[in-house]
Amino acid sequence: MSRRERIEKFIAPYRVVGEGRFRLKSIDPADIGPLTGKEQAKDLLEEGIEKLAEMQEKLYAQNKWAVLLIFQAMDAAGKDGTIKHVMSGVNPQGCQVYSFKAPGPEELDHDFLWRCARCLPERGRIGIFNRSYYEETLVVRVHPELLARQHLPDECLGKDIWKHRYEDIRNWEKYLSRNGVLIRKFFLHVSKDEQKRRFLSRLKEKEKNWKFSHADVAERAHWDDYQRVYEETIRHTATPYAPWYVVPADKKWFTRLVVGAVVHDALESLNLEFPTLDESKIKELEAAERALQAEE
């Protein structure tokens, strides 16, 4: 079995690629797949980071594809740490990270995809969205009063608004994929018990106090609602061209390994190569070499 086949087999249980009967409870947040522990994952992750750096350099040099990685999760699921570790070997020039907070007045005066569309990665680069336009079918659905701030006409606020947003997202992601943007989406699936443990850790350890917000506890009261809307959003926006990966997040080391494997698999699917020089360019380089050699 080739390395690519091993990676595909490893990530397959967490991939959601089409509308159907996906259930969030079918993925155990504490799952560690075929591994036995953290130490086994360490070497695999380091190897993956090294390979990822090689492929990112080719992506940048080839300058044809763009890659968009979208991260969604409940609070304390580990998005920031996962992004930091998985992308640690990537050249900063080839990676763009955007964290989307609550929209401001200018953003609210545009359509819900506008602020993310402005931040799409250029060709040759990896773009990372830490939260994204998916907040519009998640937090806005759990807190429908937020719709009032979006200044939408009454005709756009009917019972089908969420169905329409799912459709708009699918169509937009299809458009992007047809224009050379490879999309992979991650939901870091943490359990309620593990989230509580991490919140308490943030309260007890001074160096983690800055991470804690009372709003996190307030949102925790809506846990079941969030699980429902995440399940429905994933079910209705998972496609072959923009699949979701529901990644177990109770063990941070396993989360990082799975995400790294998915990104590795995605880049490898592009068959990236350094650009081939044509004859005129080769002659130009040869002339430059002769000129340099002729210098005293």
Amount of beta strand: 5-15%
Q: How many beta-strand runs? A: 6
SSE topology string: HEHEHEHHEHHEHHHEHH
Q: What is the gyration radius calculated from CA atoms?
A: 22 Å
Largest sheet: 6 strands, mixed
Summarize the helices and strands and which ones pair or pack.
Blueprint: H1 3-11, E1 15-16, H2 38-62, E2 66-73, H3 79-86, E3 95-99, H4 105-108, H5 114-117, E4 126-130, H6 139-142, H7 161-177, E5 181-189, H8 192-204, H9 214-220, H10 223-237, E6 244-248, H11 252-268, H12 279-294
Parallel strand pairs: 2-4, 2-5, 3-4, 5-6
Antiparallel strand pairs: 1-6
Architecture overview:
The protein has 296 residues and is an alpha/beta fold. It is 47% helix and 11% strand. The chain contains 12 helices and 6 strands. It has helices at 3-11, 38-62, 79-86, 105-108, 114-117, 139-142, 161-177, 192-204, 214-220, 223-237, 252-268, 279-294, and strands spanning 15-16, 66-73, 95-99, 126-130, 181-189, 244-248. The protein has a 6-stranded mixed beta sheet, sandwiched between helices. Helix 1 packs across helix 11. The chain is globular and about 75 Å long. The protein starts with a helix and ends with a helix. 28% of the residues are buried. The mean pLDDT is 92.
